[in-house]
Amino acid sequence: MKVERNSTIAGQPARAVRDFLLRYNNPSLGFNRECIADRIGADITDELIAAGFIEVAPPPTPEWEREQGIYYQITAAGSRFANHRFLARISRAKAKSLVAEFQTRVAAVNANPETCRVGEVRA
Q1: From CA 107, how far away is CA 112, in angstroms rounded?
Q2: Pairing between strand 54-57 and 71-74?
Q3: If I label 112, which of 12, 29, 52, 94 is the partner at 20 to 30 A Cα–Cα?
Q4: DSSP string, the chain
Q5: CA atoms of 30 and 58, how far apart (whole Å)
Q6: What radius of gyration do the chain's Cα atoms show?
Q7: Shortest CA distance to 54 belongs to which of 39, 67, 99?
Q8: How far, in whole angstroms, is CA 74 from its chain's centroid?
Q9: Per-residue confidence of the chain (123 residues) as pLDDT tens digits?
Q10: What is 8-82's CATH number?
């Protein structure tokens, strides 16, 4: 999923939504509408469901639903979005340049008999 740094989801900053999803990205942590509104600043529950980021979950106890309302949990798509870092992409040419510079440094280390050797590089 490509989300720009300054984009919004349901009128809220994407970073705020991401931070909320990251906080509750645990199957044992459920939440309700009030929790979403408190953390994000607005009740965007319906929009998060429509986006596929959260879903209705069975309540942990029968008393929960009577006292707290409907219980939600993060979906697989929400979990993926929670791990989004909002970093700018780099071009293939830039990546090749960085790898070439690194390989040059590795060769320089291995050429010096007084230093440790790099036996293997993995990427």
Answers
A1: 9
A2: antiparallel
A3: 94
A4: ----TT-EETTEEHHHHHHHHHHT-STT--B-HHHHHHHHSS--HHHHHHHTSEEEE--SSHHHHHHH--EEEE-HHHHHHHT---PPP--HHHHHHHHHHHHHHHHHHHH-TTS--------
A5: 10
A6: 22
A7: 39
A8: 12
A9: 567 778 888 889 999 999 999 998 887 778 888 889 998 988 999 999 999 999 998 877 777 667 777 889 999 999 999 988 888 888 999 999 999 999 999 999 999 888 888 888 887
A10: 1.10.10
Domain spans of the chain?
8-82, 90-123
The pLDDT value recorded for residue 46 is 92
Task: Provide the pLDDT for residue 94.
Answer: 94
- 74: its two tokens: 């993060």
Single out the residue of 39, 48, 37, 47 nearest to residue 73, CA to CA.
48
